[in-house]
Each structure stands twice: as structure tokens, then as C-alpha cells.
Amino acid sequence: TRIAAGLRQALADGTLFMHYQPVVDAATGRATGVEALMRWRRDGELVPPGVFIPVAEQTGLIGAIGTRALWLACGQAAAWHREHGIYLTVNVSTHQLRDPGFTATVLEILADTGLPAAALVLEITESVLIDAADTPVLGELRANGIRIAIDDFGTGYSSLAYLHALPVDILKIDQSFIRRHQDPPRPQDVSLTRAILELARSQDLLAVAEGVETPGQAELLRDLGCPLAQGYHFGRPADADTIDTLMREHT
Ligand code: G
Ligand code: G
Ligand code: G
Ligand code: MN
Ligand code: NA
Fold first, then answer.
1. By alpha-carbon position, which residue is closest to atom 4 of ligand 2?
2. Exposed e or buried b per residue across 168-188, where buried means at least 16 C-beta atoms within 10 angstroms of its C-beta
3. Hey, which of 18, 20, 34, 37 would you mutate to test ligand 3's pocket, going by the most ligand atoms within 8 Å of its Cβ?
4. Its domain of life (predicted)?
5. Which residues line ligand 2 (CB under 6 A)?
6. Domain ranges across the chain
7. DSSP code per residue over 172-238
8. Residue of the nearest CA to atom 3 in ligand 1?
9. Which ligand is nearest to the Cα of residue 151, counting in written order?
10. pLDDT in tens, the chain (251 residues)
11. Ligand 3 centre and the CA of 37: distance in Å?
């Protein structure tokens, strides 16, 4: 397809790049990490990742593109980690986890960029985690000190049955659970978020609330003791220079 051909070209011409969104301490609002989000500018226009990531997955190009994304993000985050103690979180697809060489690739990129393994988190959706449960890759990554996050938690189907068995460290609560909090919040919505936070705590998982857009939602999450948060209220995904300026001002 046109997108696949364009992506092959993009790997060569450098039009794939990363945006970064702050992940903050929910109590203070200060950035503790950044999530890397891939961007592609084709003929001067941004193609949404929702359009090109699925094509990259279907064509297998996600292997090379994902390696490029990791390389770019680790290189950038190494400086932020040195200067501000920031960690990096990167989204990973099923194709990457199924590659027996993936751990070696990640370790090579960490060695080359100087980002410590302990400062890297790989985000994997629930369904992909369950699908990849039989591969040695997740165990290898964790044995090397890289942390694993369940992304979009609550949108998969077997979450509770599998949660205790999944080799993960961080639970990212899907935006849909946060977005439902109105002002004032409804008791049943609050109970649901509280229950997810309690679930995370009971499994020794660090919770991140995604999609926090309003001051009321931020305050509620803080009151519920949610450790980390992310969303437009704290900062939109932005280019590295913008995030760099923000961190110099706030840390
Ligand atoms: O960035 P939003 O910014 O629109 O991201 C849309 C979707 O694309 C999200 O589900 C996100 O996880 C996914 N995505 C963004 N960057 C990457 C990436 O580098 N690798 C993979 N596999 N998915 C990504
Ligand atoms: O070698 P391979 O085609 O898998 O590389 C994928 C992408 O990783 C390259 O297109 C390049 O952008 C990026 N990259 C650049 N330098 C390095 C490096 O030293 N190590 C790794 N692992 N990737 C790199
Ligand atoms: O699937 P994943 O969680 O990796 O994707 C994160 C997506 O959510 C990205 O597309 C990112 O741009 C988007 N995002 C981040 N914060 C917010 C927010 O506060 N509101 C909305 N609607 N989207 C957000
Ligand atoms: Mn994510
Ligand atoms: Na998510």
C-alpha cells in the first residue's frame, strides 16, 4: 500500500520522529518520566499513529520502525535521565516481543545510548501480554532490570484472571476510566477507580492514571493516592525541545 511504501522510505529519510508526554507524580504534578510516542511527517503532514502503526504491524515493518523508535527515544531520554532523573516508557508491539533477538536489540541500544536499564519501561497492552506469555522475552527483559507496564489496563478481556501471572511492574489505567470522572465525581465512578488502584497495590504494581484532562480529575486521583498520572492536564505530547524546556523550568 501507499502507507507501507511511505514507511519504508521514512526509515531511510528520517521523517519518523518521537514526541514525548510527561508522566507526573500525582501528588506534586512534577514529571518523573516521559512516554515516547511515534510521529510520522509525510509530505509535510503528520500521519496519525492510529493510521500507520497498524500498517507497520501488518507488514512487519514495526520491527525496524520499533527499533528506530527505541533508538531515538533512549538517546534523548539518556540526557533527561542524567539531568533530571527522568525515566522513559516506550510502546512495544506483539511482533517485537515475538522476535527472539528483541532483548539483545534493547540491551544494545541501552549500551549505545547510555540509558540505564532501570530507567526504561516497555508498555505492552493486555492482549499482547497474554499472547506473549509463552515467549522468554519478557522474562529476559525483566532479568536485565527493564520494567514492563500493562498499557490500557481494563480494556482487555482476561485482565483479572491473568494479572497475578503476568510478568509486569506497572499498571496503566486506561483513559476511559479517568474520562468518566465528572465534576462533581459520581460515587460509582470513584469506587471503580479506587478498586483498580487497590488491585494494583495488592499486586505490587505501580499505577499510572492515563488521560487526566481536568483539574478535578487530577485532584480526585491525588486524593485516592494514585502514585502517577499522565494526560493533557499535566502536559500534551510534544517535541523533545518543548519537553526539554519544560523540564528545565520545573525540575
Ligand atoms: O500518540 P497517540 O499519540 O496518538 O498514539 C496512538 C497509538 O499509537 C497509541 O496506542 C500508542 O500506544 C501507539 N504508539 C505510539 N508510538 C508507538 C510506538 O513507538 N510503538 C508502538 N508499537 N506503538 C506506538
Ligand atoms: O539494524 P536495524 O535495521 O535493525 O536498525 C533499525 C534502526 O535502528 C536503524 O534504522 C537505525 O535508525 C537505528 N539505529 C541506529 N544506530 C543504531 C545502533 O547502533 N544500534 C541499534 N540497535 N540501532 C540503531
Ligand atoms: O495507547 P496508549 O496509551 O499508548 O496511547 C496514548 C495515547 O493517548 C496517545 O495517542 C496520546 O496522544 C493520547 N493521550 C495522552 N493524554 C491524553 C489525554 O489527556 N486525553 C486524550 N484524549 N488523549 C490523550
Ligand atoms: Mn502507552
Ligand atoms: Na495507554
1. 64
2. bbbbbbbbebbbebeeebeee
3. 37
4. Bacteria
5. 11, 64, 67-68, 71, 105, 108-109, 112
6. 2-250
7. EE-HHHHHT--SSPPHHHHHHHHHHHHHHHHTT-EEEE----SHHHHHHHHHTT--EE-STTT---B
8. 37
9. 5
10. 889 999 999 998 989 999 999 999 999 999 999 999 999 999 999 999 999 999 999 999 999 999 999 999 999 999 999 999 999 999 999 999 999 999 999 999 999 999 999 999 999 998 888 888 888 999 999 999 999 999 999 987 665 777 888 899 999 999 999 999 998 999 999 999 999 999 999 999 999 999 999 999 999 999 999 999 999 999 999 999 999 999 998 75
11. 9
ipTM of the complex: 0.89
- State the CATH architecture for 2-250: Alpha-Beta Barrel (3.20)
Does the Cβ of 66 fall within 6 Å of ligand 1?
A: yes
The residue whose CA is least distant from atom 18 of ligand 3 is: 211
